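Proteins fold reproducibly. Look at a sample protein:
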Amino acid sequence: MNARLVTLSASLLGLLLAGCGGGGGPAAAAAGPTGPVVLSGTAATGAPLERAVVKVLDARGVEVGRSEPVASDGRYSATLDEGAVAPFVLVAELDGQTAHVSVFDRAETAVVNVTQLTSLISARLSSTGTPGGLQRDFEAGQVPSPSAIAAKVFCTTQRSMCDMSW
């Protein structure tokens, strides 16, 4: 019974992460990046976070990328410094305030949105229970493992699967 649950959960997690625009998959991750790593997507809170800047911190707590101001349609793009170490926390700042936070677990070009849902996931990963707390955790070297990130994404978006008592 437990083996069936683990297999089902792993399969659903794979489908979920593939649907999040992560790109590449395990084979690409194993090969490593072949060029610049670019994280791009939408930064929005209902409406686009126009003029916000998305900064990217790596596992060492170092800023390794920064977008130009977010476009009127919410799009952003940040090219990461060579040698950036996954996982990453992405912080959308508008007028000096953290608007939303996201997290990404691989050093590969991908679509990573920064929204209310990603802030919820980030809060669940942080030691303080707040999205901004995850940024402070990264800066202090308290970085969640890629498997913890994947589990929080899965359980936050597929809560009914995590609450099952098979």
User: Anything to note?
Assistant: The longest strand covers residues 97-104. The chain has six helices and nine strands. Helices lie at 2-19, 25-31, 116-125, 131-139, 146-157, 159-162.
